[in-house]
Amino acid sequence: MVAALALYPFVYALLVASPLGTEAETLLPRVDTMVGVFYFGLFAMSFDFVSGYTGYLSFGHAIFYGTGAYFVVLAANGQVPLLAPGTPFMLMLLLAGLLAVAIALAIGALSFRLSGVYFAMITLGFAQVAYVFVRGWDYVSENPKDGAAVSTDVHPDGFDVGIPWIDALNLEIGRLTGDTVEFLFVSLSGTEVSYYMVGLVVLVCYLAMQRLIHSPFGTVLLAIRENEERAEAVGYEPFQFKLAAFAISGFFAAVAGGLSGGYGRSVAPDSSMYFLVTGDALLASIIGGFGTLAGPLYGRLFDETVREFLSKRGSGGGLLPYLRDHLPASVIEADLVGGLTVGGAIETFLNGHASLYVGVIFVLFVLYVPNGLLGTVRDRLGGTVAKQLPDYLDRYRRD
Amino acid sequence: MSLLELDGVETYYGESHILEGVDLEIEEGEVVALMGRNGVGKTTTLRSILQLTPPREGSIRYRGEELVGKETHEVADAGVGWIPEDRRMFSQLTVEENVRIAVPKGSDVEAGLELAWDAFPDLEEIRDRDAGDLSGGQQQMLAIARGLVGENDLLLVDEPSEGLAPLIVEAVHDALEAVAGETTILLVEQNLPMALDLADRFYVLDHGVVVDSGDADEVSTDSERLRRHLSA
């Protein structure tokens, strides 16, 4: 899968340049969208790390994502005490993660005294308090309700991803400020460089979380999820393990938020701290597969692909502009029923309704694919894809 | 000093008064059977010892140390193991992971696995299977293996033969007999022949109090004595 993702920008560019370019643009997510899939997918994975592996739904997880995003933007603007605007981005991500760990320990110490819906509600409560706070915190910007942007005066360059303080091992990310790369016959735009660099950070974070899940620590988390009482009777203190998982997931959520702030060079309370941000992570986890770690990334990819396909953007991509551009005028103007034309029906049912259809898909997933995309594939294969797929294909070849 | 002493233990579920003053003693190395009809408080006694359902009154001393007020994981760390009634495997973990997780912190995990595989060679063959996919007999073997590697000084075993085929019950009996050589056991068991064969002493519970106790040999030849307490 990593190889497929590594080739995606090239495949996308080839397909878009082919005779089927319009269809490819309509069906496939743009590289820019994929950058968002990566950092939000990391956030969704961090949500799954605690919620999917301990069974405690962290409904206020956006507080950590928002912490990361705000920290990076404020640090870049020189608004974080003791931190110069030129602080390496990777160091900013690390510090944002550590700040989130401290917040997670404080919230978790109180919240893990509760369970079930009460835990979900108390974590949601903490996140909403933070959301209301940043919306009114005029230290952030003149209009904190709209968030803050990285000042081009204070921090004109893009954010470096790589090894701090070694220029040759860094590339800048950002929609407009990212580096471009020309190497032999390969030419990468700023967005494509961001795709690879953000993807690299997400991959490292994923591997770290995966390593933890497959360690004895992860085994205890699974035991707690399955039977907390029994795990305690074996000698493990569930509170400590849950708190540690919460802090670790907070760290990676903040890194995801930091990547979002660094790539977009801005942060807004509604897209970082609001409870619907956690809702999107939950959606990605359920579609991708709860308790699968990688599944939420695929869930986010699925979610974003569907949203983009059903989006109302007028230039490139999306079903609505595709139909507008490609259906003959005689079909568009044809009367369907009661004066409603085909064109009118397309506008009525497709324009601005992406969330509605995503909601329907979500309901269908809950009802018919309860284990999510990756969970279902693993069930069919009888284990993780990496372990089982070669055997499965081998059997298929022999048959 | 007894290994475990229960003195006037009173335990409630909400307002329901389940244990109404249980007194019980277990010496190191003994196998003690705790018997009684359904619903008289046998499992609650085990849960009270583990502090999963802490008593409101009374004292539970383990090696002279008070357990009431401690956390369950502290009781486990002190050396009290539990093989619960429904076996409660971690069904999404493999057989091997189930054994690994039972090895106490700081102990040699590989040595623990070796101990488990030596005692139950069949488990080694299915070490990579999810515990949830095992048969009832295999699950019970795994539960006992976990008790074995837990380096417990006292093992609380709850209804190990429940729901198992006679042939498997025999295997469970043999497994427990092997464990009994290493560990003190408090055994809750409805299968009287098995319980009395394994046990050195017995207690009978009725309505939350101990109504009879003695050497297992005494009642093995006096079946009327137990029947008085155990028949419905």
What CATH calls the topology of chain A is ABC transporter involved in vitamin B12 uptake, BtuC
Rg for CA atoms of chain A: 22 Å
CATH third-tier fold name of chain B: Rossmann fold
Helix/strand-derived category of chain A reads mainly alpha
The count of DSSP E runs of length 2 or more, i.e. the number of strands of chain A, is: 8
Strand content of chain B: 25-35%
Strand order of the largest sheet of chain B: 6-7-8-3-9-10
What would CATH call the architecture of chain B? 3-Layer(aba) Sandwich
How would you sum up the major sheet of chain B? 6 strands, mixed
Tell me which oligomeric state these chains represent: heterodimer
Number of contiguous helices of chain B: 10
Biggest sheet character of chain A: 2 strands, antiparallel
Distance between the termini of chain B: 36 Å
Report the average pLDDT across residues of chain B: 89
In short:
The complex is a heterodimer of chains A (399) and B (232). With 399 residues, chain A is mainly alpha-helical.
Q: Any overview of this molecule?
A:
The complex is a heterodimer of chains A (399) and B (232). Chain A contains 19 helices and eight strands. Chain A has 399 residues and is mainly α. Chain A has a single domain, classed as ABC transporter involved in vitamin B12 uptake, BtuC. Chain A has a two-stranded antiparallel sheet with strand order 1-6. Chain A has a two-stranded antiparallel ribbon with strand order 2-3. In chain A, strands 4-5 form a two-stranded antiparallel ribbon. In chain A, helix 3 crosses helix 12, helix 8 packs across helix 9 and helix 12 runs parallel beside helix 18. The radius of gyration of chain A is 22 Å and the shape is globular. The relative contact order of chain A is 0.15. The mean pLDDT of chain A is 90. In chain B, the strands form two sheets. A six-stranded mixed sheet of chain B has the order 6-7-8-3-9-10, with helices on both faces. Chain B has a four-stranded antiparallel sheet with strand order 2-1-4-5, with helices on one face. Chain B is α/β, with parallel strands linked by helices and 232 residues long. Chain B has a single domain, classed as Rossmann fold, CATH 3.40.50.300. Chain B is built from ten helices and ten strands. In chain B, helix 4 crosses helix 6. Classes of the chains: A mainly alpha (399), B alpha/beta (232). The interface between A and B is medium-sized, with 17 and 23 residues.
